[in-house]
Write a structure and sequence with these properties.
Length: about 240
């Protein structure tokens, strides 16, 4: 089944506010939603029950993340899946330089098809954020994003090495974000992240606003058992 074929349900119409988010690229956003509602469901990237919530819960919810991203930023979307949040960001913010990182081949194939169909200048990389080849190719990002990928401590270990010093991780989370921060704060700090903070964006677009945990890269990871000036066994002073 392709996105050009009809579905059992009519495609969800964009809410009026979508025009203010996507501007003259709204037709591309509509086309993306069509991909999600058809081939995205057929190939297991989106659940069939999400049909009526594609705009508010997925596309607009992700696009408003652009409020927190600097102009012209290099953005790496880890575990992109159905292109969320990377593709909505690319549609709403064509000034951004975005790469979608996804480990599963069938999802990468779908992302390649959608990016080509929409004519986006977005790179798609098959791999995992922790793989050396991925780190070498995409490190130095201004912003690394992730959505529904895993616990905050694990996400920070995976994503922070891709962030340039002074850059940020922007992780889309749910209502339990504050509790997750309290649980994982020490782990985040241990790998060179700043104190995590909860931000809200898209207050005039989506209800409730999108919840984001922001973590800046402050330093290199702390190495357990290492001390400045220490010598290896047998090493002469």
């Amino acid at each position: 089944m392709t996105s050009s074929e009809t579905t059992a349900e009519p495609l969800p119409e964009p809410p009026p506010v979508a025009g203010s988010v996507f501007g003259d690229r709204l037709p591309l956003a509509v086309r993306y939603v069509e991909h999600l509602a058809t081939s995205g469901v057929e190939r297991g990237l989106i659940g069939p029950r999400e049909h009526g919530r594609l705009w508010d819960r997925h596309v607009l919810n992700c696009a408003v993340l652009g409020e927190l991203v600097p102009d012209g930023a290099k953005v790496v979307d880890v575990g992109s899946g159905a292109g969320l949040p990377g593709i909505p960001l690319a549609l709403a913010r064509p000034d951004l330089h975005i790469v979608l990182i996804e480990p599963l081949a069938r999802r990468v194939d779908w992302l390649d098809e959608v990016v080509a169909d929409l004519g986006l200048t977005v790179a798609v990389e098959r791999g995992r954020a922790e793989e050396k080849v991925v780190v070498r190719r995409w490190e130095g990002a201004d912003v690394v994003t992730a959505r529904a990928v895993g616990p905050l401590a694990r996400l920070t270990r995976l994503c922070l090495p891709l962030v340039r010093p002074g850059g940020s991780m922007l992780v889309l989370k749910g209502e339990s974000a504050a509790e997750e921060i309290e649980r994982d704060r020490a782990d985040v700090r241990a790998v060179g992240g700043s104190d995590p903070r909860v931000l809200r964006c898209g207050a005039d677009v989506v209800d409730p606003p999108t919840t984001v945990v922001a973590i800046d890269r402050e330093a290199a990871p702390r190495r357990s058992g290492s001390r400045s000036g220490s010598r290896r066994k047998g090493q002469r002073p």
